[in-house]
């Protein structure tokens, strides 16, 4: 029976086909695509189409950006290439936007240096400064050494702090840090309490240890220092008119951008003058004929009627120094352009004003910079470190320099501005008429 079974099996195998090619599968029929109807190109349809950015520019008579050469970056000319980070949201992409093709800060610095209406970037190691720059640099250098940065009435407070928990850092405060009762430092503003300084020290060290973002540094540390120096401790200063604003969204108006700068540069903080009633009335009169009704080179709403007197840009620890130089340089160049228009209208001069101050902050470290004018170009001198939030004495230095610059704004810049930019004492009607002519010729 076994032999019959095998014989039957062999006969069955011999009858199988030898062609092993796969079965053919019929190709699917192409599906007909259904497209939405094209929009009507009639005049009625064209009227209903959504306005483009170019339409809006034309309707407002704002000059369009110049066309770019092939291969150059395209994008919104009002967007800062290195904006201050904002508070993160759940919808923020973690992949990061592509930055290929954008001009690097080094390239932009070089381009502006070659532009006849651009910005020259120099170091403080050069010797040819305006007298105002030299005076400020000398005074800030003395404060940066820790000399006379604390008023004498705080000596007992600091000695008590040494014996308290965490107070060992106050041992670094020596006798050279205290000024006399007759020292000008006393008139700039009050020295912060030991408790306030120690609180900032703790915040700054926590931010550094935890690797906090630029936004967190601004909120937790930098704003706390500015608040302490320019608000809490200057209430008793006679004629105090300097305040500060957090302004990371303040863009430079296109009318004031230096040279061929296509993009808007923004900064993080600025100090402003709070005008008295009489000056505010003159400012409001000028605002009626100035671009975007602003007395400044930005249309940011909180800054429309308060003249700027100090630019402050912040960066994370050890990062983006050239980007910070570029941002501050372009910002101050735009401010010089605005001042030139105001001075021309008021029949004033730049005598008595040969620099505008700025500050760049990188994490703990604070640096003084200064801007001046040479013909049609702006010059930015960098950098002089004057304090750090990583130690107690460093915080006292920062507060002293901020109050020194606030005093300069009140006693030098603001009197100059009222006389030469607002035309205080001249006929305001003639002033407004001249300004209207300047603005119309610029926009026409």
Automatic annotation (TrEMBL):
- Provide an example Pfam family for this protein: PDDEXK_12
Domain PD-(D/E)XK nuclease-like, by residue range, is: 178-414
Query: InterPro entries attached here?
Result: PDDEXK_12 (IPR046797)
Q: Which residues cross the membrane?
A: none
| Skewed-composition ranges (Polar residues) | 1-12
Q: Where is the composition biased (Low complexity)?
A: 89-104
Q: Where is this region: Disordered?
A: 1-107
Instruction: Quote the protein name from its UniProt record.
Output: PD-(D/E)XK nuclease-like domain-containing protein
Species of origin reads Fusarium oxysporum f. sp. conglutinans race 2 54008
Lineage, uppermost ranks: Eukaryota, Fungi, Dikarya, Ascomycota, Pezizomycotina
């Amino acid at each position: 029976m076994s032999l019959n079974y095998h014989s039957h099996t062999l006969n069955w195998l011999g009858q199988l086909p030898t062609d092993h090619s796969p079965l053919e599968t019929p190709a699917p029929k192409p599906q007909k695509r259904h497209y939405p109807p094209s929009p009507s190109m009639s005049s009625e349809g064209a009227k209903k189409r959504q306005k483009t950015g170019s339409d809006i520019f034309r309707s407002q008579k704002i000059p369009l950006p110049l066309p770019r050469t092939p291969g150059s970056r395209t994008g919104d000319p009002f967007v800062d290439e290195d904006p201050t980070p904002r508070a993160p949201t759940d919808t923020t992409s973690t992949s990061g936007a592509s930055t290929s093709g954008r001009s690097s800060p080094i390239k932009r610095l070089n381009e502006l240096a070659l532009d006849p209406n651009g910005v020259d970037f120099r170091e403080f190691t050069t010797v040819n400064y305006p007298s105002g720059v030299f005076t400020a640099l000398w005074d800030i250098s003395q404060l940066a050494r820790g000399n006379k940065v604390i008023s004498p009435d705080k000596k007992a407070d600091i000695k008590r702090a040494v014996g308290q928990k965490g107070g060992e850092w106050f041992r670094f405060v020596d006798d050279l840090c205290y000024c006399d009762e007759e020292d000008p430092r006393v008139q700039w503003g009050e020295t912060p309490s030991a408790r306030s300084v120690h609180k900032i020290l703790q915040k700054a060290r926590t931010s550094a240890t935890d690797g906090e973002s630029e936004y967190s540094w601004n909120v937790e540390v930098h704003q706390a220092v500015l608040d302490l120096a320019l608000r809490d401790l200057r209430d008793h200063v006679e004629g105090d008119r300097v305040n500060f604003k957090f302004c990371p969204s303040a863009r430079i108006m296109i009318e004031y951008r230096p040279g061929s700068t296509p993009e808007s540069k923004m900064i993080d903080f600025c100090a402003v003058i709070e005008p008295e009633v009489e000056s505010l009335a003159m400012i409001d009169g000028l605002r009626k004929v100035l671009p975007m009704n602003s007395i400044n080179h930005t249309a940011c709403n909180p800054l429309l009627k308060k003249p700027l007197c100090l630019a402050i840009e912040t960066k994370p620890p050890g990062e983006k120094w050239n980007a910070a130089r570029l941002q501050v340089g372009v910002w101050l160049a735009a401010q010089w352009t605005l001042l030139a228009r105001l001075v021309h209208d008021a029949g004033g001069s730049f005598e008595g004003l040969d620099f505008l101050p700025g500050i760049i902050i990188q994490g703990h470290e604070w640096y003084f910079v200064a801007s001046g004018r040479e013909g049609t170009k702006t010059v930015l001198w960098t950098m002089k470190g004057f304090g750090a939030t990583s130690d107690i004495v460093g915080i006292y230095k920062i507060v002293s320099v901020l109050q020194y610059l606030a005093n300069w704004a009140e006693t030098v810049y603001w009197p100059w501005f009222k006389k030469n930019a607002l035309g205080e004492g001249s006929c305001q009607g003639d002033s407004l008429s001249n300004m209207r002519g300047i603005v119309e010729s610029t926009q026409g």
